[in-house]
Amino acid sequence: MKQFKIIATAASGMEALVGKELRDLGIECQVENGKAIFHGDIETIATANLWLRTADRIKIVVGEFKAVTFDELFEKTKALPWEDILPMDAEFPVAGKSLKSTLFSISDCQAITKKAIVSRLSEVYHRYGRLPESGAKFPLEVALLKDHVTITLDTTGPSLFKRGYRLEKGGAPLKENMAAALVMLTSWRKDRPFYDPVCGSGTICIEAALMGHNIAPGFNREFLCEQWDWVDAAIFEKVRMEADAKADYDIELDIMGSDIDGKMIQVAQRNAEEIGLGDSIVFKQMQLKDFTTEKEYGVIVANPPYGERLGEEEAVQQLYREMGETYRPLKTWSKYILTSDLTFETHYKARATKKRKLYNGALRTDLFQYWGTRPPRAPRESKE
């Protein structure tokens, strides 16, 4: 089967998680800023699309070269074997970006790349005039970084964060892959309690439940490359069947989400039911300060409002104070709170064990981590 150079794109700060996910899938990779690079065939592409929880897209690298003139860009693009990828009727929009490169006009780079591909395909398919572009879609991107050109083909379609279960969302929703990243960055294991006190539409709890049941995040959707004539449908069917066999639907999870807004609790419940996890999560309308528990060694993950709008700051800081008062007695629990407010620790009234910078879209945020005490190790059995 044909081998490709493949890129899994990721938000800034999440590349290492994507790299770990790939290695856990048995795929060796190299992590760089905003991406993980690996090699494989169509089955590898199908596996990455189906299983990666924290990535944005899976792209094939069609070609790489240096270009400092538009003539170079045209000729080197035209020299690539486009007929191996694009059928005669392919729809192939070309996006672009340029950073620290001689060719800085993105629109010109896009137009010349497109023109070069059309020129090659017209010669190969003996078509003169416009190509029909009436068939399957093949989204391309020409990216220039320090005069190094990379042309990629998107295999995913709508971003991987679109799992297909969010029927409704709240006012400031967290993307599903960001929610999955928050769960991965905790010490949570599926045999321990998990709690989101400001659950909104339930995304963090649902992502935790998907991990707890070992359900592939992409099982509920299709991917763009499945429409391409050179992608064998049997490969995706095989990968989906293997994923279904790996899922543990029977395990009982202790996951709870609460929110002060009863309407959001209904939304969260509907979203969980849409993906078949309605019985795996308990959603409850409740004020944050009313949370008490006798359970131990649990994990709290919260993405509270950031108070970005005028007049909200004071209310949000009061919420942070309530978090500190409510969670401080829970010595064995680990708490992870995501916020863009760098004064969070002042209001929570405790220094974080560790902080991690993450980008929620374009917004810089910090994950404030408060680690609970570890459970005692089980005594080793003495050897007779």
UniProtKB/TrEMBL annotation:
<keyword id="KW-0489">Methyltransferase</keyword>
<protein>
    <submittedName>
        <fullName>Class I SAM-dependent RNA methyltransferase</fullName>
    </submittedName>
</protein>
<dbReference type="GO" id="GO:0008168">
    <property type="term" value="F:methyltransferase activity"/>
</dbReference>
<dbReference type="InterPro" id="IPR029063">
    <property type="entry name" value="SAM-dependent_MTases_sf"/>
</dbReference>
<feature type="domain" description="THUMP">
    <location>
        <begin position="44"/>
        <end position="155"/>
    </location>
</feature>
<dbReference type="GO" id="GO:0032259">
    <property type="term" value="P:methylation"/>
</dbReference>
<dbReference type="InterPro" id="IPR004114">
    <property type="entry name" value="THUMP_dom"/>
</dbReference>
<keyword id="KW-0808">Transferase</keyword>
<dbReference type="InterPro" id="IPR000241">
    <property type="entry name" value="RlmKL-like_Mtase"/>
</dbReference>
<dbReference type="InterPro" id="IPR053943">
    <property type="entry name" value="RlmKL-like_Mtase_CS"/>
</dbReference>
<keyword id="KW-0694">RNA-binding</keyword>
<dbReference type="Pfam" id="PF22020">
    <property type="entry name" value="RlmL_1st"/>
</dbReference>
<dbReference type="Pfam" id="PF02926">
    <property type="entry name" value="THUMP"/>
</dbReference>
<dbReference type="InterPro" id="IPR054170">
    <property type="entry name" value="RlmL_1st"/>
</dbReference>
<dbReference type="InterPro" id="IPR002052">
    <property type="entry name" value="DNA_methylase_N6_adenine_CS"/>
</dbReference>
<dbReference type="Pfam" id="PF01170">
    <property type="entry name" value="UPF0020"/>
</dbReference>
